[in-house]
Model the fold of this input.
Amino acid sequence: MSSGNAGSGGREGAPRAAAALCGLYHEAGQRLRRLQDQLAARDVLIARLRARLAALEGDTAPSLVDALLEQVARFREQLRQRDGGAAEAALRQKLLGSWGPSLLVSTQEEIERLSEQLEEKERETKQLMSQPEREQKEVTLLRRGAAQKGRAPAASDILCRSLADETHQLRRTLAATAHMCQHLAECLDARQRAKGDAGERSPEPACADGDGSVHAVVAKLQEENRLLKQKVTHVEDLNAKWQRYDASRDEYVRGLHAQLRGLQAPLEPERPSPPELMRKEISRLNTQLEEKINDCAEARRELEAVRRARDAALERVQMLEQQILAYKDDFTSERVDRERAQSRIQELEERVALLQRQVPCKQSTRCTSP
Done:
């Protein structure tokens, strides 16, 4: 009886165990499908991130993303193998006839262990996916710094062109001033020759004082011209220094671009990039750029001083031109007055000579008349 009851109990417990096993198998299949859906969603996310990275970094090698995809595929294959192993173990236990509560406990433990492993792999996948984002942020920062360094040469080129234009204008102004001084010297020489030809032995004191003042003004203009030439030479030296600085800065910017391209390449895990050194280098470059901007501002102030001196010299030249024109008008009027006086004196002398010739004739007629 006891054996019959045990046999009947075993026959009645077998369907229940089989039903429980089928339910567990169905639940494991559903969880496996959910995990497969999650893996597919992560594959889609990785593909989208890869497309974004390819759009942002045109020349970046996708080896890091390929490694991530291979690792995810390897994890998925391991999960499938483990799920298949768990199913085979369950079927093996069913075939062997082990239909007790230990099967349910072991199956639940296996499912929990697989879930923990899957969560761990998901955390590792998220950590690996977050690394390209940090690298992308660093690359973006470096690109922004390189763009700022690229805009700085454009500003320096504009400044150099303005300095070149100012230098050209100063040269033309100096040439005009030299021509004006030469013209003034020629006028003075012509005036002195005219005085020598006219035979003026005792010139008026006012004219002598005027000639002395004109000579002094011409000497002062020559001195100012020399100072302006020195300032123009100084500005040309500053322009040459700026050109050398632009060349060195362009070379350094090219080096930065090369380093940026090196950072965009796939990084080896055993040799990470030193972002702190790049930040220090960028800060040093910013400091150097500020110093050069201050030098440029100082050169601009010196150029403004040279421009003001040039304007003052031009005003002085215009004033001297007006004075020389006034002296010339005075000299012309004096010469006209002298010529008029000389012609009047000549007429009076001729008249006196005529009267002197007429006096003897009248005396002779008086003597013959009695």
